[in-house]
Structure formats: structure tokens, C-alpha cells
């Protein structure tokens, strides 16, 4: 009888130890997460914490179709392309790096979004916005995050987290819109278009190599859309047409950046680097909005009446009656619905099949 009681105690102790080990492993185990680097098309709130920044989505009507309907740092009425791509791949949405709630447990479960409105591949881009994170700065913050996680969960667990994660880099539009195409920046009179694109791509290639050296193995770089067709560019022409020279720069960048990503994927150890873009599809939405369910691809949904360009959406702005019918939310950024179509096309071109429950196969 005493022997049976002793065995029962040993079994109970063993089970308790198993539970403790499982709990501890669960705390140190990282899920497959995302680390996102980008500009206002991917920002989920970093610039809201940069209080001197002139590029912030902190006022109504930003976020009106997202969750509580309040501004959340996204430069949109709803979701970003990165939000939607991650959702469709079954990945958690990473919080902003500057979110005060960010700690090691959040990073293990959700990753981090370093994207910053106004950010560019080049450090000098968008300097007129005063505060923003360039891509090099975002990578520097990522390095600090790695050091933090190694201290908190140990090198092995941290390296596993970073090695298995998905990486998204979506940059480049600001380097044109808020640098090369503005004569106040020296790059606009230092380079011609071809030389500037080469300068950007050379810099980007070095940045992607750096990310690989820091453990990035599965990375997607998102190319540019027809940025000469954003409302801000169209309103600056006498006819309201797309600015074809600006679109030509975007196409040239996509071609060269795509080639650079392919080279890196084939030459770097264990790298699966991919180039995701939906330029032609987005152009078709703009050219034939009715065919895609829109009735306006020229003006922003959120504007200040006849006062154009208003640049950002403000509490004084007037909203269009049906946001799902507009391609653009403000002078720069697409609406939630346009972002969804762009995200789905990007996934299609990457040969990622999305099921109804958001699980994916490649």
C-alpha cells in the first residue's frame, strides 16, 4: 500500500514537472512572425510616437474603417497591404516598434513593424518631415531588437525566432516623391533619372545583404506602383493625367530592384528572397476603375473640397459617400479596398495560394 502511494506521488511529481517544462518552453518558444520595414504604406503607428514628425496619421479620419474607427497610425481608412498579405498568410500582425506595450513576449508572438511614414531607402529622403526612420535606421532598430531578445530569451531561442521569421521590405516611393522629384533636395540636381535609380538599387542591395547577415532568410521586397498616378501627382498637371515620367522611374526601379533581389536570392546562403509587385494590375485599376468595382481613381476620398492638394486627411476634410468606390484615400495612399486587391494580386504573382481560412501553400 505504501509502495502504491509512493508511486502515485512520484507520478504526480513527474506530471507536475512536465507541466512546468511545457509552460517554460511555451514562454521561450517563438511563433513564426513577421518583421516589417517600410514607409507610410506599411506604418502602423511608429510616426505617432515621433512627436515632431510632419508625417503622422494621428487625426480623423484615418482609421475610420479599422477596428474602433479611431486613428491608429495607418495612413489609410483601413488596412495596409502588409496587414492584408500577413492576414492571408495566417501570420500575426506585428505592432509598431515604438508601441509602449512591446516586450519580449509580444515580439515572440507577433514580431515587430519598423515602418515609418516618410522613410526611404536613402537617409536624406523626406528630411523635410523632420522625424522619420530611414531603412538604415530601421535596420539599426532591428539590430537592437535582436540584442534585446538574446538577453531576454537566450541566444538559441532568439536566433531561432529571427531565422524562421518572414521579412517584408516595402520602400522606394518617398525616395522619388519626397527627394528626387523635389528641387530642394540635392539629389534632384546631382543625378539624372537613370543614375538615381542605380544609386537607390545599389543602396537597397547593400541593405538587403545586411538583413541577411542578421539572419533574414525569407524576405519579400515589395516594388513600386504607378506613383505618377497618385492624386498629388495628377493635380500638379494641367490636364489631371498621370505623370508618365514619374511612372517610368517606378518601372525602371522595379526592373532593377527585381533583378537585384533575384541575384541575392541565388547567391546568399539559404536565402529565399522574392520580389513582389502589382504595378500593371494597379495601373489597370487606375485606367479602368469600373472593371474593378470603383467609380473614382483620380481624386482622393478624403479631401478639403476644392482645396487641392490637401496632402493629408484632416478632421475638416469631407469624406466621399462610399469609400469602397474610391481607389485613393488621400493624396498619397490607396483605400482599404484598393489595398486588398493589390495584396491579393501580389500574393498571386508570388504563387502563394490563399485558402478561405487564410492558410497558405506555396
From TrEMBL:
Keywords annotated in UniProt: Hydrolase, Lipid degradation, Lipid metabolism
UniProt keyword Lipid metabolism present: yes
InterPro entries noted in UniProt: GDSL, GDSL_Est/Lipase, SGNH_hydro_sf, SGNH_plant_lipase-like
UniProt-listed Pfam families: Lipase_GDSL (PF00657)
Molecular function GO terms recorded: hydrolase activity, acting on ester bonds
GO BP annotations listed: lipid catabolic process
Superkingdom of origin organism: Eukaryota
Protein family membership: Belongs to the 'GDSL' lipolytic enzyme family.
Record's protein name: GDSL esterase/lipase
Organism: Oryza barthii
Amino acid at each position: 500500500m505504501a509502495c502504491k502511494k509512493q508511486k502515485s506521488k512520484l507520478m504526480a511529481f513527474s506530471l507536475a514537472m512536465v507541466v512546468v517544462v511545457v509552460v517554460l518552453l511555451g514562454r521561450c518558444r517563438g511563433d513564426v512572425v513577421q518583421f516589417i520595414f517600410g514607409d507610410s504604406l506599411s506604418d502602423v503607428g511608429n510616426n505617432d510616437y515621433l512627436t515632431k514628425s510632419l508625417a503622422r496619421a494621428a487625426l480623423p479620419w484615418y482609421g475610420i474603417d479599422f477596428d474602433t474607427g479611431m486613428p491608429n497610425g495607418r495612413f489609410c481608412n483601413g488596412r495596409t497591404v502588409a496587414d492584408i498579405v500577413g492576414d492571408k498568410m495566417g501570420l500575426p500582425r506585428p505592432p509598431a516598434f515604438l508601441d509602449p506595450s512591446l516586450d519580449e513576449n509580444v515580439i515572440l508572438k507577433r514580431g515587430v513593424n519598423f515602418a515609418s511614414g516618410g522613410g526611404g531607402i536613402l537617409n536624406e529622403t523626406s528630411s523635410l518631415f523632420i522625424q522619420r526612420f530611414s531603412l538604415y535606421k530601421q535596420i539599426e532598430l532591428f539590430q537592437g531588437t535582436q540584442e534585446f531578445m538574446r538577453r531576454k530569451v537566450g541566444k538559441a531561442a532568439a536566433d531561432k525566432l529571427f531565422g524562421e521569421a518572414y521579412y517584408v521590405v516595402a520602400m522606394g516611393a518617398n525616395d522619388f516623391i519626397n527627394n528626387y522629384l523635389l528641387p530642394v533636395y540635392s539629389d534632384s540636381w546631382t543625378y539624372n533619372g537613370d543614375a538615381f535609380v542605380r544609386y537607390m538599387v545599389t543602396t537597397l542591395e547593400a541593405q538587403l545583404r545586411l538583413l541577411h547577415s542578421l539572419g533574414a532568410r525569407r524576405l519579400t521586397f515589395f516594388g513600386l506602383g504607378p506613383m505618377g498616378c497618385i492624386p498629388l501627382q495628377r493635380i500638379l498637371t494641367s490636364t489631371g493625367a498621370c505623370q508618365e515620367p514619374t511612372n517610368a522611374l517606378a518601372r525602371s526601379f522595379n526592373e532593377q530592384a527585381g533583378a537585384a533581389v533575384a541575384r541575392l536570392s541565388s547567391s546568399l546562403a539559404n536565402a529565399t528572397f522574392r520580389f513582389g509587385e502589382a504595378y500593371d494590375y494597379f495601373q489597370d485599376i487606375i485606367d479602368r476603375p469600373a472593371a474593378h468595382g470603383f467609380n473614382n481613381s483620380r481624386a482622393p476620398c478624403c479631401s478639403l473640397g476644392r482645396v487641392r492638394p490637401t496632402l493629408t486627411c484632416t478632421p475638416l476634410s469631407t469624406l466621399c459617400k462610399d469609400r469602397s468606390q474610391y481607389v485613393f484615400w488621400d493624396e498619397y495612399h490607396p483605400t482599404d479596398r484598393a489595398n486588398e486587391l493589390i495584396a491579393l494580386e501580389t500574393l498571386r504573382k508570388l504563387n502563394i495560394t490563399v485558402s478561405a481560412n487564410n492558410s497558405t501553400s506555396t
